[in-house]
Each structure stands twice: as C-alpha cells, then as structure tokens.
Amino acid sequence: MTSYSENEPLDIQKSPAAGSAGRRRESQSGPGAEQWKKALFVFNPVAGRSEIRTELVDILEIFARESYAVTCYPTKCRGDARNIVRSRQGDYACVICSGGDGTLDEVVSGMLEHPDKPAVPIGYIPMGSTNDFALSLGIPVNAKAAARVAARGKVIGCDLGLFNSDTYFTYVAAFGLFTETSYETPQDLKNMFGHMAYFLQGMMDLGKVRSYHFSIESAEFSISDDFVLGMVTNSKSVGGFPDITGDEVDLGDGLFEVTLIKMPTNLLEVGDIIQYFNRVTDVSDFVYRFKTSHIVLKSDQRVKWTRDGEYAGTCKKVELTNLRRKLRIIVPEEQQ
C-alpha cells in the first residue's frame, strides 16, 4: 500500500525502462524533447469529491510505468501549492498538478515566480467541480486517463494572463454577477452538484444584482458604462457552461475573449440577454464581445475580482495582459 505523510513529500521511483518509454515529447522539435524523469506531483486532497484519495495509488503506478521518479506533496491550505512549486529544489522534468482550476492557478503562479528555476511543463489531473480549463484543452476528467496524458502526452504553448503585473491567471479574470459564486459556494455544495452549484448560487444572488461603472480601454474597443458582468477569458467554457466565451476560441493566439454585459432594467432586457447566450439571436444591445491582447478596466469604486474561480481581492483598476504561449502544458497527443 502506498502512503504519504501530511508533512513531508514522498518519493516514488522506478528504474528507467529500456527503449523510449516515458520520453517527454515537445510539440516542436529541439532541446528539451527528452529530459530527466523526475516529477513533482502536487495534489489537493479535498478538491472535488476528494477522489484523489482513492485514485492516488493507480495514478502513481501510471507514472512508475513511464519511468518517472515522483515526489508527492498533498496541499494543506490555500496558497500551499503555490509555495511548494515556487520553492521547489529538485531538477524536475515536469510538475503534475491535481485539483481544481484554483489549484492549477497556484501551481502556474508558483512555477513562474521561482527566481532561479526554469519553467517546466505542467501536467494536469483535474479533480474540481467544473474543470473548465481542462475541458478546453481536451484533458480527460477521468483521473487515470488524465494521468496517462500527463505521463505520455505532448507539450504545447498556451496563453497565460497577467493580472496587474504581479499575478497570473490561466483562463478567466472576472467581476460582477456569478463571479463571486465560486469562492462563496460552500465546498460541500460544489462537490455534490458540480457546475450546477455555480448556477444555483448565482440564482440565489439574482435578488441582489448590482452594476458597476467601468471605463474600459483596449486597442480594439473602448467604452464607459454600467455592467453586471465582465469576463476576460482564455477558455471555451466558464463555470461548466460551454461556448459562453464565444466562437473560434484559440488558447494560443495571444488574444483574450472579452465579454461585457450591461445592466438590464426590466425582464424584457433580461430576456434579450438570455436569448443571445442561447444563440436565439446573433446580437444584443446589452452584450459586448471582442478580442484583445491587453485591456485596462477602471472603476470609481473598489470592485471584487476573481481569478480562475478564486477570490482576487478588490481593485479600482485592473490591467490584464496576454502572455502568448507562456504556459507549457501537457495535452493529449491527438490535440491540435
């Protein structure tokens, strides 16, 4: 039986196999196509339905069969994954992350904040409630299937968001309606109902909907108005709802998809917004959509923001920059 300590990382090793087993393949040829076989495995033991507790041994066996020496580290609190990866000491070929999108956000931030170590590919085993980013990348939500992708898949460059020059986000930065749902929805509710928990909590919030006045500037589009929701995304789904970010989403084109929803004043205007997102109509006077690589959003009051479903604090000004293909992440071989 494999076990781990709550306080100390655990090393799982197997002698390298003959032939090409376990070689990491890059999507481009060149240096780094074959690397050492050490992996750091950071996992959130309470993400989703805590399934990692029953899947852990099978996951480790998958990596062992691919000739990896794995160091395991279960997180103990918020921010722990970020600190673990930021302070890593070993020369790891890759970092494997298991948890929700928030855990992945921490791993990515810790990776890029390390002052001395180069950024290495990240493998993702999604265990969250919605797993938006994993679905956008074609990574399976089944733990063992995702582990096989992390062990055998290819590395691609994926866009990464920079939030106010000091923090990162992998797929969404947002304010307003539904954006508080993720971090205010109790974990038990998320575990029980999955992405429906976000919808249920959002429905409960409808009685206290408020708008925020923003001046928004980008090279492609500028506006000053009252908005109930703003999303700057690099994902094909948000909150478990597919296609909400628009058509022709490319996670490596260097562009965000921006969605802004104006404050409706009556039920007819609410219906207009709903019809637009249900694709009944192609245009709406209350929804703005455009693509940009850089955007600045200013408000005359402090507004709550979320990054990848986690609370990002209150800000009067937010500047978001797309770092094209900054994130190296492992995806299925057949992924385009």
Descriptive account of the structure:
This protein has 336 residues and is of the alpha+beta class. It has two domains: 10-159 and 327-331, Probable inorganic polyphosphate/atp-NAD kinase, domain 1 (Rossmann fold, 3-Layer(aba) Sandwich); 167-324, Tumour Suppressor Smad4, CATH 2.60.200. Helix content is 25%, strand content 35%. It has helices spanning 52-65, 80-86, 101-113, 132-137, 143-152, 181-184, 187-193, 195-205, 267-277; strands spanning 10-12, 25-26, 38-43, 69-74, 94-99, 122-126, 154-163, 167-169, 172-176, 212-218, 222-233, 237-238, 241-242, 256-262, 287-292, 294-307, 310-331. Strands 2, 7, 8, 9, 10, 11, 14, 15, 16 and 17 form a ten-stranded mixed sheet that branches. The chain has a five-stranded mixed sheet with strand order 1-4-3-5-6, sandwiched between helices. Helix 3 (101-113) links the parallel strand 5 and strand 6. The longest helix has 14 residues, at 52-65. Mean pLDDT is 81; it is low at 1-8, 12-35 and 189-204.
What are the defining features of this structure?
336 residues; alpha+beta; Rossmann fold; Tumour Suppressor Smad4; 2 domains; ten-stranded mixed sheet; 9 helices; 25% helix; elongated; disordered N terminus
What layout of secondary structure does this protein have?
Layout: E1 10-12, E2 25-26, E3 38-43, H1 52-65, E4 69-74, H2 80-86, E5 94-99, H3 101-113, E6 122-126, H4 132-137, H5 143-152, E7 154-163, E8 167-169, E9 172-176, H6 181-184, H7 187-193, H8 195-205, E10 212-218, E11 222-233, E12 237-238, E13 241-242, E14 256-262, H9 267-277, E15 287-292, E16 294-307, E17 310-331
Parallel strand pairs: 2-7, 3-4, 3-5, 5-6
Antiparallel strand pairs: 1-4, 7-8, 7-17, 9-11, 9-16, 10-11, 10-16, 11-14, 12-13, 14-15, 16-17
Helix pairs in contact: 1-5, 2-3, 7-8
